[in-house]
Write the structure tokens for this entry.
Amino acid sequence: MDNEKIFSITEDRHKNLYIATFGSGFYRYNLVTRELKHYESSKDESGDLTRNELANDWVNYIFCDSEGMIWLGHYKGISCFNPVNESFINYRNVNTLIEDRVGYVLQEDHAGNIWAGTTDGLYRFNKKTEELTCFTVADGLPNNVICGICEDEEHNMWISTYMGICKYNVENNRYINYYAGDGLQGNEFTHGAFYKDQAGKVYFGGIKWYYLFPAFIHRECAERHQGLDYGLLYLQPACTEKYAFGKAYRYLYVCAGCEYVPTGSLR
């Protein structure tokens, strides 16, 4: 693996690391046996996606789901690899789930659905029914280029994009979008810069700062500020100061006795 550009790493329950590279497909490395195996495309430029192989070697993201399947986001879309029989799962007669767009990020929700962020919208794949649903700006997203995806403790999906952040309430099909005017450092976020900690807090990486989103609404603040959604607290590197801003009924400030910040625009 000398001189490989590594973009993403995931681990399965069998102590295997799956390592995504930018230009050389992906590797599987067993931490116990130290066995290293390489998977890549055949380099055939015919565009034939029916073969049992990786569709594209430029892998942005790799993810192991709860069933041990390995999902890959690459420059020809989204693929799924079965490590048991070392084959790529064939959906719709091709070896990719989503075609003709760049796959940037992948996550799994509490129900086992796979969420995929691409250059052309957000996708949800039901593994049981094989139903694929696409979400775009026409549905309420702030932008079609998806950079990060996290599910909070209330099963809302938080999505970072090239034009702000969205909180998507799946149950109610409701979108709440946050922009630079709401206090973000800017509208553009970074591919793959997202994380959910053990306490349920969700983090996104922007161009300058990192953002912390709550996994729940504090009851006292909900009573004090009826109708507002609770949004973000941004942190600069080596700085823990909390700032207070206000702009025409859209606020970014810290509630008394509350760690989190009410902000956002409703859609």
